[in-house]
Amino acid sequence: MNNNRKNPNNNHIPYMEEERDLELENIIGNLMIAQYQVDKLRSRLSERIGGYGSASNKKASTNIFKHNDKWYKISMRVDEMTVDYPE
After folding, report:
1. In the chain, domain spans
2. H or E segment at 7?
3. Is 7 exposed, middle or buried (0-12, 13-18, 19+ CB in 10 A)?
4. Exposure pattern of 24-63 as b/e (b: 16+ CB <10 Å)?
5. Chain-centroid distance, C-alpha 85
6. pLDDT of residue 36
7. Coil, strand or helix at 24
8. Which of 22, 25, 30, 59 fits a 20 to 30 Å CA distance from 70?
């Protein structure tokens, strides 16, 4: 690698070969996508619980399903709350 060669876009920055870790880039990209999805889901949940996103005011959900001859019931309840933080 010739570090004395100049980058054609900027005469003050020496040309350097990039070493890329594609797995690391993929992990970082996935983290960014996941954070975006979490933010969107939190926003949707907040709007729904606050009453803006739904005509109904239900704040609970129940799902019943069968797997391997056993029945399961999953219940979730969401409550809005206020937390005071000491300053």
Report:
1. 20-77
2. strand 6-7
3. exposed
4. eeeeeeeeeeeeeeeeeeeeeeeebbeeeeeeeeeeeeee
5. 25
6. 96
7. helix
8. 59
Q: What is the DSSP string of 51-76?
A: TSS-SS---EEEEEEEETTEEEEEEE
58: phi then psi, degrees, rounded to nearest 5: -70, 135
Query: How far, in Å, CA of 80 to CA of 49, rounded?
Result: 7
Q: Under 8 Å CB-to-CB from 3, ≥6 apart: which residues?
A: 14, 15, 16
Cα–Cα distance between 45 and 24 in angstroms, integer?
Answer: 31
The first and second tokens of residue 65, run together, are: 């399903």
Q: What is the mean pLDDT of each run of 10 residues along the chain (87 residues)?
A: 54 77 95 96 83 62 93 88 81
